[in-house]
Amino acid sequence: MQLESSRLLLAEIAWDDLEQVHQLHSFPEVYEFNTLAVPESIEETKEFIRPVIEAQTLVPRNSYTWKIVLKETNEFTGLAGLKLSADKFRLGEIHYKLLPGYWNKGYATEVAKTLIKAGFETFHLHKVEAGVATENIRSVKVLEKAGMIREGLRRKILPIRGKWMDNYHYAIVEDDPRDV
Question: How far apart are the first and last CA of the chain?
Fold first, then answer.
């Protein structure tokens, strides 16, 4: 499955993407607010993406992970994902991470809007959610620009580098106004 926006193509990751995914995960600033550690080897990255690739064969499917590439140049810029609930609540949770060289160019907001649109139009979700560390101001701004609303605070839920951090809960419901 592929998703597309004006400047970006989101294509499901494959084993051929291992080096690029490893490079993304090797930037400490990418993982400043992530619960995973920077991988010590490409083997660690391989074990990280193994279940992601294996999930592509599951029926019914409950998770998708895409590489993000610039349409114009086919440059790898990061990863995006959507996890689906397998119940009557029709929930999906989005996530994204970009290489630092692609920050502050509107790509993350474009990715978030693309994931939200797919959530409602392709997966027929009722609600699309996202969590973000309260100190991750860049990602808070992305979610708000994408039309998501802060619904709450989950205290000390994120184990990041040996410290428990708070998390904001953002969401958008299918009948909320949006420009995607």
Answer: 19
